[in-house]
Amino acid sequence: MARNVEFDEQLAVSKAMDVFWKKGYNGASTRDLTEAMGISNSSLYNTIGDKHQLFIKAIKLYTESRMNSATKLLQPIKSPLKAIEKFVNASVYAITNEPNSCLAIKTTFEVAISDEAVQRIIKADNDFTYNLLINLISKAIELKEIRISNDAEMLTDYIINQFTGWHESFIIHKDKLRIKKMAEFLIRQISQ
């Protein structure tokens, strides 16, 4: 009697996520994905579905893991300003040390423009970051840790948009020091 091989879907999706992260949605072939996952085409279609369904699972895994990591990272920090600084510095580390840049940003420009399902996932990820930061900024303003502005919404948008620019700068220049200096400047600005 043939033995059924157990299929660890989360591990397989994680391996596919790495392929999408490196090659992009359009650059990743079904063969690239199934080879990385260690499964056949028929196993892919029978367990997960097509390439698009696999991509949806992969981008969800990526964004949900980022959300969980950010929550765990910031939870023990009492000062809202210190939590913002930690988040900015963690973002700088990710920007300058992840070899394939940010999968969410790549996906935004490659796929989310024309794919509503992907756009919803990316928007949920952005909304999470926005809500996390606006809550911290609002508390920091209330505690007078931030005095540069009382406009929490504008400061939140400003910080989030810095991350996208830093990703672009690092992709082009590969200069870690440049990104770190911009982050230090941003922290000095909001700490005034």
Topology summary:
Layout: H1 9-27, H2 30-37, H3 41-47, H4 51-74, H5 80-97, H6 103-112, H7 116-142, H8 152-173, H9 176-191
Helix pairs in contact: 1-2, 1-4, 1-6, 4-7, 5-7, 5-8, 5-9, 6-7, 7-8, 8-9
Question: Summary?
Answer:
With 192 residues, this protein is mainly alpha-helical. The protein has nine helices and no strands. Helix content is 79%, strand content 0%.
Tag the structure with descriptive keywords.
192 residues, mainly alpha, Tetracycline Repressor, domain 2, 79% helix, disordered N terminus, transcription regulation, DNA-binding
**Tally of alpha and pi helices:** 9
Count every beta strand, where a strand is a DSSP E run of 2 or more residues: 0
Broad CATH class of the domain at 59-191 = Mainly Alpha
Which geometry do the CA atoms define? elongated
Helical percentage? over 70%
CATH superfamily of the domain at 59-191: Tetracycline Repressor, domain 2
- The helix-strand sequence is HHHHHHHHH
Low-pLDDT sequence parts: 1-5
Distance between termini? 71 Å
InterPro entries: Homeodomain-like_sf (IPR009057), HTH_TetR (IPR001647), Tet_transcr_reg_TetR-rel_C_sf (IPR036271)
Domain HTH tetR-type: 6-66
Protein name: Transcriptional regulator, TetR family
Keywords: DNA-binding, Transcription, Transcription regulation
